[in-house]
Specification:
With 404 residues, the protein is α/β, with parallel strands linked by helices. The protein has two domains: 25-295, TIM Barrel (Alpha-Beta Barrel); 312-401, no CATH class. The chain has 16 helices and ten strands. The chain has helices spanning 3-9, 45-57, 72-85, 100-113, 127-133, 137-153, 170-183, 199-216, 233-243, 264-273, 284-295, 316-327, 331-334, 360-369, 376-387, 395-401, and strands at residues 25-28, 62-64, 91-97, 118-124, 158-163, 187-192, 221-226, 247-250, 312-313, 351-352. The strands form two sheets. An eight-stranded parallel beta barrel has the order 1-2-3-4-5-6-7-8, surrounded by seven helices. Helix 4 (100-113) links the parallel strand 3 (91-97) and strand 4 (118-124). The two termini are 38 Å apart.
Amino acid sequence: MTDTTRDELIYDWNAPYPAVDFEVQFDDETLRDGLQSPSVTDPDLDKKIELVHLMDELGIHTVDVGLPGAGDRARHHITTLVKETASLKITPNVACRTVITDIEPVVDMVQATGVPIEVCAFIGSSPIRQYAENWSFEDMLKLSREAIEFCVKHDLPAMFVTEDTSRAHPEQVRALYTTAIEAGARRVCVCDTCGHSTPMGAKAVVRFVKELIDELGADVGVDWHGHRDRGLGLINTLAALDAGASRLHATALGVGERTGNTEMDLLLVNLRLNGVIHNDLSKLGEYCAKAHEAIGMPFPVNYPVFGPDAFETGTGVHASAVVKALRKGDTWLANRVYSGVPADLFGLEQKIMVGPMSGKSNVMWFLEKRGYAPTDAAVQGVLDLAKKTPRLLSEAEVLGAAGL
């Protein structure tokens, strides 16, 4: 089948994805924000190292390796992970409050490892946070300036992070970012910390920050960090990219504080399918499985692309179409005839199972894949059991019903 023929098989109602005239970067927050989920376990160091290597293989640019202010265990893990990145393309960063005592340990870590570490210095920016904390805005500006100046003085690349940017007053956002940029921040991070934004809101706040940077004539990158309390984390991140955010934060499986963050795996999938990136994502399934194993995060069976049910069907009509494509020897066709996501692009494959809605093609393919001849008697025996069983059959049940 030629590429021209393939193009004719799918009519695409999706509008062409907006062109991006900059390199789209990714910051993996699994080992920092991800571990703030109330349902996960902080992994052993060897598991974290494995995850960092997978992030690197997927083409993720930076990894947040933790909070230096969280204690001795955190600092030991951070230092070891920073050393590990020395031989990789991925580079490390850490989250610190805009407090000098939080940032001071990073200076020692850089000296000990010889590896540059980006400091992500954060401060709450919304009026509701200021009211709850009894903060004065003047003190916030002072802390922000001193934190960034300390980073610059010690040659630490600095990103200034405003928590809850999506609920902050524009003029206070302007004042905070202006202060940080003038103090030497190389990047700024716009945060939807509470998952408040809609896609239009995400675009609006990122555009506001981009316009401010242009007004200042600064060469400063913009990050987007979003949560999914309203279920909008992924679409908000795509909207932020459209508005000009050049580095996108996300976590494996969307793990994170409360209901979690933008899903790194699904973000990469969508940008790959939209032609924005061309990363080799064949190990993305392994990344999800490793994260699930390391942090103990529940993995829903119907999770898009990487859940056990994503490319599995026991429905006769669906299975028949897939099987016909496979019998043509056309995996391209098999991976698209009943799927909006090509399984093979992400190191996965279609799975044909047998259940109460199955037909003969399910059973025949199931048996053939396991090296058995699908005789009429074997197929009928399996179908008889399937039609009276209110779920998919296990492999042992199929083979037993087939008399094998």
